[in-house]
């Protein structure tokens, strides 16, 4: 029996991370049955699962089968939806129907998709707002599946439904979906034409439409059009912000335009546009030397000065622009009781640079002598919920290797394996310094701890 369990197919990451144990067991059984090509057994499993599951468990499993990132078993989404729709607790939902239709389009099951569209239109025929919302959801879901024909088909249906409406709010929502959908499928020129049409109807574009246009032109490497769209956004009354800037930086990075990225980072600083963790991610993911270096933490440079020595000119200029930002201060909390650094949301390159900046910041503050030594120091990495292998955090592995190589006395917190923590004898000494301790007191404690460290084994297991 244990041998049979070992042979069961592994489920996709998304299913493993968010599903309940019941849902996970069901999909594992379903994968085994499907592999045996037994339609009757599969149908029995589906029916038994729906009958024995709560509403939340059943709908969560269905949402996984409908997800654009889940191809495994997705062919069973329609049969499962059909059985769920017969359950006593089920209430019809046009958003869920749109998700099913978009997946059927992706699978080239156009007859089934058309039947569901006709059924929905019949239900919502005299409810204009809900019908338009359904088409908007359909466009958005087709966009996530990267289905160009699906977006254009839904776009046409929505425009037709919109032609009979006099509601400005409804038109605003509809144009937002249509323009966003066109941009996702790489048709920014058509989206820009639609924005002009939108203005002609007295509907003012929002920041979303401008951002969609900017990002679409940027992804395609049409940087002149991207910059022109930024200018149009500013003329339209929307200031350049962090979200839009990150879209521009991400686009420049995809096309390896590092010098243009340096210029853009400088513009952000001049305009007072704050950097964010996403700014770090977008920029550092484009620095090939840094991204190559973090793949081998055992030989990583352990200071910003050493890092600068291995970078080429363009990457060094990019790094200089990032280092002076306020991102480190925003992810660091310094109190008497605790010094915490939170690395959540950071990619490997960002976590690496922030750690280097953090070490420099600690040295600077302690040497200045104007900071109280915290009782406890904590670095929060997370436990790898979104990693390729569940529970394996690349950021945690990177930080661990840096700690070991720098002979740092931090260890993994047994109460939270996603954190590194320094406490015990070392932090007890810091605690005894008290709030009124001077820098001389701290240096004396440091000298004592230096001897103690030789006898301390840091447990990273």
Note the main attributes of this structure.
461 residues; mainly alpha; 25 helices; 64% helix; disordered N terminus; disordered C terminus
Spans of at least 5 consecutive residues with low confidence: 1-17, 424-438, 448-461
Shape: globular
Number of beta strands: 5
Fraction in beta strands: under 5%
| Major beta-sheet overview | 5 strands, mixed
Radius of gyration: 27 Å
Oligomer: single chain
- Summed up, the helix count is 25
The pLDDT mean sits at 82
As laid out across the biggest beta sheet, the strand order is 1-2-3-5-4
Structural class: mainly alpha
Helical percent range? 55-70%
End-to-end CA span: 31 Å
Give the ordered list of helices and strands. Answer: HHHHHHHHHHHHHHHHHHHHHEEHEHEEHH
Structure described in brief:
By secondary structure, this protein is mostly helical. It is built from 25 helices and 5 strands.
Structure write-up:
It is built from 25 helices and 5 strands. The protein has 461 residues and is mainly alpha-helical. Helix content is 64%, strand content 5%. Strand 2, helix 22 (348-368) and strand 3 (376-380) form a beta-alpha-beta unit. Mean pLDDT is 82; it is low at 1-17, 424-438 and 448-461. It has a 5-stranded mixed β-sheet. Helix 4 (39-52) crosses helix 6 (77-84), helix 13 (207-219) runs parallel beside helix 15 and helix 24 packs antiparallel against helix 25. The protein has helices at residues 2-6, 13-18, 21-35, 39-52, 55-66, 77-84, 94-106, 110-124, 128-144, 148-162, 168-184, 188-200, 207-219, 223-235, 242-254, 258-271, 277-284, 288-293, 304-310, 313-323, 327-331, 348-368, 394-405, 425-433, 439-453, and strands at 332-334, 338-342, 376-380, 411-413, 416-422.
């Amino acid at each position: 029996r244990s041998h049979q369990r070992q042979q069961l197919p592994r489920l996709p990451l998304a299913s493993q991370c968010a599903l309940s144990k019941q849902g996970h067991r069901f999909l594992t059984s379903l994968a085994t049955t499907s592999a045996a090509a037994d339609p009757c057994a599969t149908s029995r499993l589906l029916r038994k699962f729906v009958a024995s599951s709560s509403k939340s468990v059943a709908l969560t499993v269905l949402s996984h089968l409908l997800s654009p990132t889940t191809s495994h078993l997705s062919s069973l989404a329609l049969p499962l939806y059909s059985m769920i729709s017969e359950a006593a607790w089920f209430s019809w939902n046009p958003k869920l129907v749109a998700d099913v239709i978009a997946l059927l389009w992706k699978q080239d099951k156009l007859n089934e998709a058309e039947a569901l569209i006709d059924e929905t239109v019949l239900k919502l025929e005299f409810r204009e707002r809900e019908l338009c919302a359904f088409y908007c959801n359909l466009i958005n879901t087709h966009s996530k599946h990267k289905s160009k024909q699906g977006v254009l088909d839904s776009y046409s249906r929505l425009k037709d439904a919109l032609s009979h409406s006099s509601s400005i709010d409804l038109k605003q929502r509809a144009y937002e979906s249509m323009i966003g959908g066109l941009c996702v499928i790489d048709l920014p020129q058509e989206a820009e034409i639609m924005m002009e049409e939108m203005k002609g109807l007295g509907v003012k574009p929002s920041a979303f439409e401008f951002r969609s246009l900017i990002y679409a032109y940027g992804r395609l490497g049409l940087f002149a059009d991207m910059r022109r769209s930024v200018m149009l956004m500013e003329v339209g009354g929307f200031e350049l912000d962090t979200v839009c800037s990150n879209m521009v930086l991400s686009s420049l990075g995809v096309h390896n335009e590092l010098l243009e990225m340096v210029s853009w980072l400088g513009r952000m600083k001049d305009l007072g546009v704050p950097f964010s963790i996403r700014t770090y991610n977008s920029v550092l993911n484009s620095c090939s030397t840094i991204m190559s270096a973090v793949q081998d933490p055992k030989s990583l440079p352990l200071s910003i000065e050493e890092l600068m020595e291995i970078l080429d000119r363009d990457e060094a200029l990019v790094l200089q622009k990032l280092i002076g930002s306020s991102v480190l201060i925003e992810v660091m909390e310094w109190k008497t009781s605790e010094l915490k650094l939170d690395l959540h949301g950071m990619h490997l390159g960002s976590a690496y640079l922030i750690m280097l900046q953090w070490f420099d910041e600690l040295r600077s503050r302690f040497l200045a002598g104007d900071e109280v030594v915290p009782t406890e120091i904590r670095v929060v990495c997370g436990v790898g919920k979104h990693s390729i292998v569940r529970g394996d955090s690349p950021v945690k592995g990177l930080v661990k290797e840096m700690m070991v190589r720098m002979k740092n006395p931090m260890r993994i917190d047994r109460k939270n394996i996603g954190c590194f923590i320094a406490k015990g004898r070392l932090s007890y000494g810091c605690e005894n310094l008290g709030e009124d301790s001077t820098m001389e007191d701290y240096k004396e404690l440091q000298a004592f701890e230096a001897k103690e460290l030789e006898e301390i084994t840091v447990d990273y297991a």
